[in-house]
């Protein structure tokens, strides 16, 4: 999915939502961290599934 740079700049939550949606079906969760106005996503393996 393409996101306009202006949208990211004026609405950082938009890109975060897009990334979270992209990682939704994956077996990992992302921690959102704001630094200097930037957004960093740290993928963390979720052990919610019990075999």
Give the key terms.
single chain; 51 residues; alpha+beta; 2 helices; 2 strands; 31% strand; elongated
Q: Would you write up a description of this structure?
A:
By secondary structure, the protein is an alpha+beta fold. It has one domain (5-45). Helix content is 35%, strand content 31%. It has a two-stranded antiparallel ribbon with strand order 1-2. Strand 1 and strand 2 form a beta hairpin. The radius of gyration is 13 Å and the shape is elongated. The relative contact order is 0.18.
Provide a concise account of the structure shown.
By secondary structure, the chain is an alpha+beta fold. Helices cover 35% and strands 31% of the residues. It has one domain.
Distance between the termini: 33 Å
Which structural class do the helices and strands define? alpha+beta
> Rg to the nearest angstrom?
13 Å
- Please provide the count of β strands: 2
Low-confidence stretches: 26-34
Provide the spatial order of strands within the biggest beta sheet.
1-2
Number of helices: 2
Write down the overall geometry. Answer: elongated
Mean pLDDT: 56
How many strands, which pairing sense, and closed or not: the largest β-sheet? 2 strands, antiparallel
Order of helices and strands: HHEE
**Share of residues in helices:** 25-40%
Number of domains: 1
């Amino acid at each position: 999915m393409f996101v306009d740079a202006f949208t990211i700049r004026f609405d950082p939550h938009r890109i975060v939502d897009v990334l979270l949606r992209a990682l939704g079906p994956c077996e990992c969760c992302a921690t959102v961290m704001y630094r200097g106005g930037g957004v960093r996503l740290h993928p963390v393996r979720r052990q919610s599934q019990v075999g």
